[in-house]
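Invent a record, attention on tokens:
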Amino acid sequence: MLPLTDDVREQMIAHAREQFPKECCGMLAGVDGKPVKVVRATNSEDSEFRYRVDDRELLRFLHDIDDNGWDFLAVYHSHTRSEAYPSPTDVRLATNWPDPYYVLVSLEDQENPVVRAFRITDGEISEVPTGDDASA
């Protein structure tokens, strides 16, 4: 389970809405499997269909989590016109970071954004429950 509080969900949804129609991306830092910080990143692809976390921002994030004793918990990004499910490109890119969760924010229905989390291991996708820490 990846316990996403309403606050964490809202931060990711707000980021996705601000970047629309382009995809947003970012990372979650965590402690004991729970998010402690949402880190927005620049999508260096600057695209409606692809994302790539800016290399310098990723390096800063890695230093920040190391300095604070946090874990690299998740990568998140938005899908602006499709469901919150990993695309073939997402699956291919997941080989770069096999351990973190992959969180997708779908704005396919902008009035009702959907947030879902996945593990992607060796090309296999498995959904992970995202209940908040009150229900964990």
About this structure: Strands lie at 25-31, 34-41, 71-79, 101-106, 114-121, 124-128. Residues 29 and 72 are 5 Å apart (CA to CA).
